[in-house]
Amino acid sequence: HDWYSGATILSAVEPLAQDEAHIQLTNKIVEESTHLSKLFKGECHFVDCYFGEDNSISLNSEDKENTNRARHYAKLSEYCREASVENSNIHLELDLPEDAIIRTAEEIDPELVILGTSGRINMLFDLTSHTSGQIIDKVNCDLLVMKPDNFMSLIH
């Protein structure tokens, strides 16, 4: 993808993260994606996913799924409001993160996808074995993987 004025940026976020590291990383991703979308006079999109209930063990799976979706959507809407991003640019999927990101990228054809890495082991390991590693060759655009502020690489 060539970059141009009006570029589309898709950012994968975790609006319901509960630990400080993931909250900070989500905030950092939102800040960077809104900054870049303003810089390129483009459009910022957020993708999040949620999990439904296993129908084999839950009688009220549809109610639980709707409640889970509503929680994600409400929190994601807060991020959009704070970042001056339209709610129409929310992509909320009942799926695994890598599948939701790939499908959304195929739908909106962004110039850039932004992901976060937890840095639990090291960034190289994360890129080859987790969500970012699974999508790196499947999106037709640039990919920016952001790390938390306290990221500590084990490779020196």
Total helical segments: 5
| Secondary-structure class | alpha/beta
* Largest sheet composition: 5 strands, parallel
Using the CA coordinates, give the radius of gyration. 16 Å
- The total of beta strands comes to 5
The dominant shape is globular
Query: What is the averaged pLDDT score?
Result: 81
Percentage of residues in strands = 15-25%
User: End-to-end span in angstroms?
Assistant: 33 Å
H/E series: EHEHEHEHHE
Tell me the helix content.
Answer: 40-55%
Instruction: State the low-pLDDT regions, or none.
Output: 54-61, 121-129
Strand order of the largest sheet: 3-2-1-4-5
Description:
With 156 residues, the protein is α/β, with parallel strands linked by helices. Helices cover 43% and strands 18% of the residues. It is built from five helices and five strands; from the N terminus they run E-H-E-H-E-H-E-H-H-E. The protein has helices spanning 20-39, 61-83, 97-108, 123-129, 131-135; strands at residues 8-12, 43-50, 90-94, 112-116, 142-146. It has a five-stranded parallel sheet with strand order 3-2-1-4-5, sandwiched between helices. Helix 1 (20-39) links the parallel strand 1 and strand 2 (43-50).
